[in-house]
Amino acid sequence: MPTPHPRDPAQTPRPNHERLLPTLLIPAFVSLLAVSSVNVILPALSHSLSAGTAGLQLVVSGYALVFGVALVPAGRAGDVMGRGRIFVIGMILFGAGSLASGLAPDVVTLNLARAVMGIGSGLLNPQVAGMIQQYYTGEARGRAFGAFGAVIGVSVAVGPVLSGGLIGWLGGDWGWRASFLINVPFTLLGVWAARRYLPASAWLGQSPRDYTRRADHDAKNGATHRSKVDLDPVGMGLLAAGTLLIMIPFMEASAGTWIWGLEVAGIGVIGAWVAWEKRYRAKGGAPMVDLSLLAIPSFAYGSLAIAVYFLGYTSVWIIVAQYVQAGLGSTALASGLIGVPAALAGSIAAAVAGRRVIRVGRVMVLGGMVLGMAGLLGSIGIMHMHARAGWSPWWLTLTLLVLGVGQGLVVSPNQTLSLADVPLEYAGAAGGILQTGERIGASIGIAVITGLTFRVSHSSGWEAAAQVGLLAVVAAIAVSAAVAAHDLRLAARRRR
Predict the structure, then answer these.
(1) Domain 290-496: what homologous superfamily?
(2) Which of 147, 245, 294, 404 could form a disulfide with 345 if both were Cys (CB 3.0 to 4.6 A apart)?
């Protein structure tokens, strides 16, 4: 297992936590809005730019693909080159992409700009986890990750409502453009805050291991120059290519059966990446991901559990939106509002859980998964009673609220616990692995579960389809809960 090395105290002045956390979380919030808000603007965007189905699919999937591919390399780049530096570069790219998206004259330009946004978001988000890991310890770290989880929940709730409100206020053309342009001032504020409030150590271009190596080299040779930064570019390229090839078939399944050949190719490339990382480390290099991280049980099982969890959970809101709009004939705004209580409850739960996760441990994550399954089964019951007894579908706000509370007890606490034993020098890369697992799980889930849901809707209508889809989500979360329970049992054995 990688061994952490102490950082020079002179290089790590005590950060101002009251200013540091908002500095990290506001850009993360804005970047995550871009994930949840885009679905609401698609009809207006299609009319404004005369975009076809393929172009609109790329507006959604292109951002997610680039975002997912960038996460682990970006995390490692932050570990080695300075997390503050990569954080700011990510914000600048995200802001530039948002500006270009808002001013795009056609769908091709829009998709290129969205790709730039995805790169920026992929660069900055692992740095948030890395710097929380770097500058917070114990219960303070749990509270910081809890606040991060709350931000994720609020962004999910605010994104669709904000975009829908802008379209209602400014009209279709300027409304969807404003949903991108509004990111620009927040990005500029984020860059200013980062330059002002991030600790000096956040800008240093070496990881703790590299500081130690440089110090040893200087002591032996009297050198004063900085050692060469080892980014493992081959490893970065192989992992990025493998992740992209694995995600594309699930996000572009309508392209035809041939596209699944990319899945096989992606698995092969990931195999080549594993072989390269082992060889690179054996030759004395610093691999992008030290594979011995997977020997840390809390990290390995936490990464697997959250990937499977997102395989199910991400599809919920697509299924609910389609049920409300296509099944009940309600508006897009109504479908967005029905999930707001859940998102807000999840945010509150995440913040509260962050204060207690260190004391409670993995039991909290498992409990959140059980709550999530209970909320989903309750939602299925409401849909059934709406069809059979005329119950109001707005009762879904209560059952989905239970799901939201469960979500708040799962994501941030799992991140805190999974990274707890990871050496600081790999904090960014490890955080990137967790988020990449989430993105891959989400892409597979959206393809498989929503695909199943749509197939059932064609034959049996949206009432049955939504219930079948949510049952599939329950099954996925049950598998994730089994992984978390296994980790819990292993942890209990280690304590004996």
Answers:
(1) MFS general substrate transporter like domains (1.20.1250.20)
(2) 404
